[in-house]
Amino acid sequence: MIAGKQQSQHSQLFSLKGAILTLSIFTLISFSYLSFKSLRPPLPLSPTTPHRITLFPTVPSHAHIVANEKEINVDEGGEDDDVGDLFTDVYHSPKLFKLNFEEMEREFKIYIYPDGDPKTFYQTPRKLTGKYASEGYFFQNIRESRFLTDDPDQAHLFFIPISCHKMRGKGTSYENMTTIVQNYLHSLITKYPYWNRTLGADHFFVTCHDVGVRATEGVPFLVKNAIRVVCSPSYDVGFIPHKDVALPQVLQPFALPAGGDDVENRTTLGFWAGHRNSKIRVILARVWENDTELDISNNRISRATGHLVYQKRFYRTKFCICPGGSQVNSARITDSIHYGCVPVILSNYYDLPFNDILNWQKFAVVLRENDVYNLKQILKNISQEEFVTLHKNLVMVQKHFQWNSPPIRYDAFHMVIYDLWLRHHVIKY
Fold first, then answer.
1. Is the pTM here over 0.70, yes or no?
2. Which of 49, 56, 59, 404 has the greatest count of CB atoms below 10 A from its CB?
3. Hey, which bits of 29-128 come out as E strands?
4. Pairing, β 268-273 against β 294-297
């Protein structure tokens, strides 16, 4: 009888241990599943189209979620006249771009620090003309736009309104520029609480002149933490694609009207004229300046040869060669786009403007610098049908590389703002 009682107790104990073991296994499996699910990367906003020289930044998962919630309604209401041509493969993900752009227009707010004398280096643009007009237009456009807020508590991002271009215009040395930037930023950090909330991750500054890169290099916590909107987005000078924004360098006003739908007039295969102020330009001129099919000049065309001769060459050329100069960027790219000449990018380290939105392979020829030796054959291998498609797509994107005052929907200002809108989603408070 005692033995039977002991056997019964052993059976109950075994059943209890079995239940505990089963529960433990189930709990372990559940936690493993949940951990795996939480570590899974977010779905991308758009497919990562292969690109020879550019790296597409990681797109915030929030943008994808916003688009998914509304995508089912995209085709229900028809298309506005000004967005009808957005639904092409010139854009990596046209429907998502349209939806997220509209959300940006409704919600995005930017606060401009009011500190700094506009008569010195702050608040206002130096000018809206010349090679560095993009910086000036941004300073002006932000104040003309719907995105400006006077309430910092409503702001998604904070604009640091210091202009290195204005410093350059006043003859300030690089060392003094760095000191001015440091002192100004320190005053903002001391006076306001906003920088310290994210260590500057929700702050940005804009500079198109290459001196802006040199002036801010001596302020590492600004360069590493804040969003840099720059015309010289080269990986070899610390440009970070998923954080920073490539500002298109646009030489405005344009001397002549926009080109387009004129392929029958474009009889010259390729064109470049400029100073030999970089290694790739020296090689380009040395290899091709005597070629009979490529119009290559190792110096800028003299005004003495005729009125606007340089600009008129763009109108009759299929492909305009765009090698980097003293910096990786060149206003020649946006000149080519404006005049309807398919740009040929010759660079190893250029993060092209808006390349997380636009598919540059659809309206440009993107090459590495070593391809310069085979340049003519590469261009001749592009069929007339392919060229016509590139040209047609180029005309579609011209509006994205044009500055206006006040700004116009989908122009260069709005595209830069959209890039900033995408980047603000990854900031954690």
1. yes
2. 59
3. 110-112
4. parallel
